[in-house]
Amino acid sequence: MFYLHFTEKEVLVFGGVWAPERDELLAYRTLLQEHYKEFQEILADKKLKRMLGRLQGEKLTRMPKGFPVDHPAEELLRHHQWYLEATFPVKVLTTPRLVPEMVRRFKVMAPFVEFLNRPFIQKAKTAKFSLMSF
Length: 134
What we know:
single chain, alpha+beta, three-stranded antiparallel β-sheet, elongated, disordered C terminus
């Protein structure tokens, strides 16, 4: 998900997962369990780190039930939110700079968001195929 939010003090651009439902949370963790190296490569991108910083989101204090405690992606699997964000001064909101600044950050976030969307895109394709099979 891509998100834009502003207050009287700042403009926020956000990409990722904020409050997944239980089934969605399991899908994200399963994806990360199986493809964590790819996700880590996305997060290691220098441009992404420079423009958006590090992965953010709340985490559990221990491994979620059903996942091995010694998994190499333990840090990622303990998350229940995965997001990146950047803020701008609110004065940018009323200038021609807003859209280009948003677009630059959303483009850099795109591989991150596309990765997190994978379980649901595949599910939608399967459902569409099943409907077409009748």
